[in-house]
Amino acid sequence: MRVATYLKLSVAVAVATIGLKAGAWWLTGSVGLLSDALESLVNLAGASFALLMVTLAARPPDDDHPYGHHKAEYFSSGFEGVLILVAALAILVSAAERWLNPQPLEQLGLGLGLSLVATVLNGVLAWAMLRKAREVRSMALEGDARHLFTDVWTSVGVVLGLVAVQLSGWLWLDPLIAAAVALNILREAVGLVRRSVDGLMDHALEPEVQASIEDALAEFKHETIRFDHISTRRAGTRRFVDLHMHMPADWSLRRAAALRTSVEQALMAAVPGLRATIQLLPSDVEAHFDDPRDPL
Question: Model-level pTM?
Answer without folding.
Answer: 0.55
